Amino acid sequence: MAPAKAMAVLVLAVLLLAASSATAVHDYGDALHKSILFFEGQRSGKLPPDQRLRWRHDSALHDGATAGVDLSGGYYDAGDNVKFGFPMAFTATLMSWGLIDFAKTFGAHEGEARKAVRWATDYLMKATATPGTVYVQVGDAGRDHACWERPEDMDTPRTVYKVDRDHPGSDVAAETAAALAAGSIVFREADPAYSKRLLDRAVEVFEFADKYRGAYSSSLHSAVCPCYCDFSGYQDELLWGAAWLHKASRRREYRDYIRRNEVALHAGDTINEFGWDNKHAGINVLISKEVLMGKDEFFQSFRVNADNFICSLLPGISGQHPQIQYSPGGLLFKVGNSNMQHVTSLSFLLLAYSNYLSHANARVPCGSGGGGGGGATPLQLRRVAKRQVDYILGDNPLRMSYMVGYGPRFPQRIHHRASSLPSVSAHPARIGCRDGAAWAVSPAPNPNLLVGAVVGGPSNTTDAFPDARAVFQQSEPATYINAPLLGLLAYFSAHPDLAQ
């Protein structure tokens, strides 16, 4: 056996063995509760009376005023004080997808998960209230990143950025449409009137995104780059938005749009990446459900793409050199910053696809040609996804949970301004832009626990983690890391032994 293939088989064996005989018994329900609680720590705007992370206070109440609009609310995306619409919309879409597919497993946490979605969708409704315009960012990223201050104190420019017909942004607009459409499904029964408003707005925003095509990274390059440039182009977001509108509305026009634009918008791309930038893998998995449920054979190519993508995540099964690496401790690994965003999003797709396969009594024909009993079973996909979740919660060489507040050992010095500075209650006096530097470089633990935050985690193949505020690539949390984790934790809280 070739060395590369032998190593792939060994890694897969480690992953599946660890999943079936975990070193710790995790309270996935508690982790789910904490993961949702994290979003309260990321809230911008006027905080509600039932705010549970009490060390956070009102902030950015006048966002949008310079443009004559109300853009208060929404989420800060990570450890800074800028509101980036692109990752916020993706966050809302993924939280909604988890609720749509696994609502019954959320149990007592379903209501608080819906509140987390609504905090985003309420803001996105404000950001799209002006026809032909989508407000996509509040805050000057360069000026903000030059300061270390609490969101309650910030005095950096709250510059407003938008896309419109003269400055197109099909990527961010279509992702916003996807978020609104997905949210409309989440609230279909809980709040039908709100659900209808979300879907109606999603239709309008998608029409704008498709009619005025262009990348927002071109229109707003100096504002959104390098933080959230869309390196994959806007084509994937248009297909993604259409797929969610089809799922939410069941209108034939969106099915026809996908078929008509499948080639032009590169639907065949099977890049094994899924996140706020690249939606191809998510598109293929989402649309494949239609095929597996026997609802639309015309989308068969998407299932083929999804199968190829899933196989690329399963070393030792595909029969090909694996495209995804795993660390010695079993963590899915991709080169770049904030590896945990890849871990949670790809694991979510593994779980979602395993769910679709189970209902169709099917499997993934990795290396089997589609015949016989070869390929990967839905249970194998779930085991690999569960192994990643367990790694995050502490089943790793360092025995460290990468979720703040979960387990006996977790990151103490996360790269997060509000968490690392004393709260307004503890330190009522203003902390200016430069005044926070002493806390930023301090080796002391953060004074405020951002409960539920999952940090970037190990960023190399040695499973090492420095727990240092300065190493933001590893120590910074982000909403789009936690968003896909909600569905995963909900499912495993109801199926901890993978018996079903």
Automatic annotation (TrEMBL):
<dbReference type="GO" id="GO:0008810">
    <property type="term" value="F:cellulase activity"/>
</dbReference>
<keyword id="KW-0624">Polysaccharide degradation</keyword>
<keyword id="KW-0119">Carbohydrate metabolism</keyword>
<dbReference type="InterPro" id="IPR001701">
    <property type="entry name" value="Glyco_hydro_9"/>
</dbReference>
<dbReference type="InterPro" id="IPR033126">
    <property type="entry name" value="Glyco_hydro_9_Asp/Glu_AS"/>
</dbReference>
<dbReference type="InterPro" id="IPR018221">
    <property type="entry name" value="Glyco_hydro_9_His_AS"/>
</dbReference>
<keyword id="KW-0732">Signal</keyword>
<feature type="active site">
    <location>
        <position position="476"/>
    </location>
</feature>
<dbReference type="GO" id="GO:0030245">
    <property type="term" value="P:cellulose catabolic process"/>
</dbReference>
<keyword id="KW-0326">Glycosidase</keyword>
<feature type="active site">
    <location>
        <position position="415"/>
    </location>
</feature>
<feature type="domain" description="Glycoside hydrolase family 9">
    <location>
        <begin position="28"/>
        <end position="489"/>
    </location>
</feature>
<dbReference type="InterPro" id="IPR012341">
    <property type="entry name" value="6hp_glycosidase-like_sf"/>
</dbReference>
<keyword id="KW-0136">Cellulose degradation</keyword>
<dbReference type="InterPro" id="IPR008928">
    <property type="entry name" value="6-hairpin_glycosidase_sf"/>
</dbReference>
<comment type="similarity">
    <text>Belongs to the glycosyl hydrolase 9 (cellulase E) family.</text>
</comment>
<dbReference type="Pfam" id="PF00759">
    <property type="entry name" value="Glyco_hydro_9"/>
</dbReference>
<protein>
    <recommendedName>
        <fullName>Endoglucanase</fullName>
        <ecNumber>3.2.1.4</ecNumber>
    </recommendedName>
</protein>
<feature type="signal peptide">
    <location>
        <begin position="1"/>
        <end position="24"/>
    </location>
</feature>
<keyword id="KW-0378">Hydrolase</keyword>
<feature type="active site">
    <location>
        <position position="467"/>
    </location>
</feature>
